[in-house]
């Protein structure tokens, strides 16, 4: 989707608000919201691509103005309700209650398996690499162009690279394809490549900074051979 | 429960919530998920503690210091970031597939995620707010020299090539910064203490001692 989250190259947002001695969490609620990726993930709410797509569907103005971890709470609510696990009326009622009683305690429950999961997933991670029989259609050194159409669902094909031509500099193997998994489909693994774009290719000679490149990772369906190089792909 | 749960509209009215409203809503979600067996407060606390006290830029700094003092390790790190960090017991969530890019006298690298907030957690911990915010994400790909100069005080000569890595896939990029002059006699531990988070993002360099 052509969402506000797709920020690369947007002008007018102002200086970077750097906070000195920034704490890891700014409030207690941020810790709870941070726990709302890994634990609902374990409960089958979403994969990481769907998690992102839930955030992308926030109202654009709120997306830009809300604190970061509210984005996480938004996507958890989105998928929890969609899965029928969270009841919107119940959420509203409890929110009113905690607004009036901010110090009211949370329900208490112990779950050693969940604690073990937390430590385990932090150490082991959850790689998006997936085996596939697909042969790579491109190799390092190939010049490719990014498709310039505008998909409606989740994609990582950012607007600022669409239609642009660059050179493949790294080939990473096959990974979950976000345009499938992020839209509720299967893993559908595809080859991932890093494409190097010159600044002038992305922004035009007039405004591009000198002597620089942007490196962007693409999945194979995002790209076609660059004009004049058709047939060079294996 | 008087009504059947219905899916709320995807886009709510654009009203920005206060911190109090967000806190109450997150607490409501947490309470329900605790009752449903999805979350516990002890697991929330443990996860927060890990990223407050155990996993942070001190781990990336140890990797950098080793790369500065051990040429074989450095060579392996640049070839396979994930496996080489594992040699030091470093790796995991949001760093399952890491690529380390090296700064030199003529090349400066900087990382971003323009589409969300991808960041190499196992070596840098959780990202600062500015990394996840719209200003940095929008500008660093379009005017990196200007952002580095005006927002981070890092003025790079035009002769230095600037490479911006937009972390659009699950590959996690981070920067092996230049070892500063005047550190020839220092051991790994002393070197690690010099390495800053921003030098591994690429919005800073490691200052000379």
Automatic annotation (TrEMBL), chain B:
- Provide the catalytic activity annotation: an aliphatic primary amide = an aliphatic nitrile + H2O
**Amino acids binding Fe(3+):** 113, 116-118
Which GO molecular function annotation, any one, does this entry have?
Answer: nitrile hydratase activity
Every copy of the Nitrile hydratase alpha/Thiocyanate hydrolase gamma domain together lies at 21-203
Q: What is its EC number?
A: 4.2.1.84
Q: Which UniProt keywords apply?
A: Iron, Lyase, Metal-binding
Signal peptide: which range, if any?
Answer: none
Broad enzyme group: lyase
- Tell me any Pfam family this protein matches: NHase_alpha
Q: Does the keyword Metal-binding apply?
A: yes
Q: What family name appears in the similarity comment?
A: Belongs to the nitrile hydratase subunit alpha family.
Mind telling me what this protein is named? nitrile hydratase
What does the organism's lineage look like at the top?
Bacteria, Bacillati, Actinomycetota, Actinomycetes, Pseudonocardiales
């Amino acid at each position: 989707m052509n969402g506000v989250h797709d920020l690369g190259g947007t002008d007018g947002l102002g200086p970077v608000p750097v906070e000195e001695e920034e704490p890891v969490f700014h409030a207690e609620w941020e810790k709870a919201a941070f726990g709302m990726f890994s634990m609902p993930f374990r409960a089958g709410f979403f994969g990481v691509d769907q998690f992102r797509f839930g955030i992308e569907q926030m109202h654009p103005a709120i997306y830009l103005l809300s604190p970061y971890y509210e984005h996480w709470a938004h996507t958890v609510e989105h998928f929890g309700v969609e899965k029928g696990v969270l009841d919107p009326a119940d959420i509203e009622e409890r929110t009113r209650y905690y607004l009036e009683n901010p110090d009211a305690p949370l329900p208490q429950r112990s779950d050693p398996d969940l604690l073990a999961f937390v430590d385990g997933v932090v150490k082991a991670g959850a790689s998006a690499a997936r085996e596939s029989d697909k042969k790579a259609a491109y190799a390092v050194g190939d010049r490719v162009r990014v498709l310039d159409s505008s998909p409606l669902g989740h994609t990582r094909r950012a607007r600022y690279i669409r239609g642009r031509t660059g050179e493949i500099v790294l080939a990473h193997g096959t990974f979950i394809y976000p345009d499938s998994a992020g839209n509720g489909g299967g893993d559908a693994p595809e080859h991932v490549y890093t494409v190097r774009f010159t600044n002038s290719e992305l922004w035009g000679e007039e405004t591009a900074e000198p002597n620089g490149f942007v490196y962007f990772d693409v999945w194979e369906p995002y790209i076609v051979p660059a004009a004049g190089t058709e047939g060079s792909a294996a | 429960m008087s009504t059947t749960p219905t899916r709320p509209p995807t886009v709510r009215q654009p009203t920005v919530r206060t911190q109090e409203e967000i806190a109450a809503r997150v607490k409501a979600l947490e309470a329900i998920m605790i009752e449903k067996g999805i979350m516990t407060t002890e697991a929330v606390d443990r996860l927060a503690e890990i990223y407050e006290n155990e996993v942070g830029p001190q781990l990336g700094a140890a990797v950098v210091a080793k790369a500065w003092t051990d040429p074989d390790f450095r060579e392996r790190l640049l070839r396979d970031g994930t496996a080489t960090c594992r040699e030091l017991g470093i790796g995991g969530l949001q760093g399952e597939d890491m690529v380390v890019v090296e700064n030199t006298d003529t090349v400066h690298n900087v990382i971003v995620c323009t589409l969300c907030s991808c960041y190499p957690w196992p070596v840098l911990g959780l990202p600062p707010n500015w990394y996840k915010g719209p200003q940095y994400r929008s500008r660093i790909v379009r005017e990196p020299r200007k952002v580095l100069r005006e927002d981070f005080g890092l003025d790079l000569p035009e002769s230095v090539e600037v490479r911006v890595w937009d972390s659009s896939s699950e590959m996690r990029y981070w920067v092996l910064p230049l070892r500063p002059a005047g550190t020839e006699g220092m051991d790994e531990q002393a070197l690690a203490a010099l390495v800053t988070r921003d030098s591994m993002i690429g919005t800073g360099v490691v200052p000379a001692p």
